[in-house]
Design a protein that fits this description.
single chain, 177 residues, Alpha-Beta Plaits, alpha+beta
Length: 177
């Protein structure tokens, strides 16, 4: 990630986008989304991650997040690393995954472009962090996150999308701004 595009100031909320390589629709299976939920929840309870808004879209994750101590970039790096290993293991081992061969071949092709990826690459390298200290920008990005499934034509109302902080039954609890 470029040194100019890092989220490394503790206490500052950042709008972050974590896309899958090639914008592959990977988060279409509940089991894979639950891996993301489990890992984000772990980061909240054990790594000090505050999430103000989030959505898990089919090919990417948006969130507004911060940490009060430490480095948000390092936390996101670790989250992506652990999640990638778990998701790849799931793809390999789940007999019901009809796209297994295609997914693994695609993730392998992306990995071949980077030396640090041995066999598979799941996430794009950057998180596109944007500081949202300003209330106007914070509210603008939060609305963008919550309406992302509506704009994509997945649901009619933001609160109908389960893997979103707009949903009152969302599996990830968010902080008040």
């Amino acid at each position: 990630m470029s040194e100019l595009r890092k989220a490394n100031i503790p206490g500052i909320p950042y709008f972050i986008t974590m896309p899958i390589v090639g914008w592959i629709d990977l988060f279409t299976r509940k089991a894979i989304c639950e891996i993301i939920v489990k890992n984000l929840t772990y980061c909240q309870s054990h790594r000090g991650l505050d999430i103000f808004a989030y959505v898990i879209m089919p090919s990417h994750i948006h969130m507004i997040a911060r940490i009060l101590e430490g480095n948000l970039n390092e936390l996101i790096r670790d989250f992506k690393s652990v999640g990638a290993k778990e998701i790849i293991y799931f793809i390999k081992s789940d007999r019901r995954e009809s796209r297994k061969d295609w997914l693994l071949a695609s993730l392998s092709i992306f990995a071949s472009a980077y030396k640090q990826n041995k066999n598979y690459m799941l996430w794009q390298k950057t998180n596109y962090p944007i500081s949202v200290e300003d209330n106007f920008l914070f509210d603008q990005k939060k609305k963008y996150i919550l309406y992302n499934p509506v704009k994509a034509g997945i649901v009619l109302n933001p609160e109908d999308y389960y893997y979103s902080s707009a949903n009152p039954f969302s599996p990830i609890k968010v902080c008040e701004a």
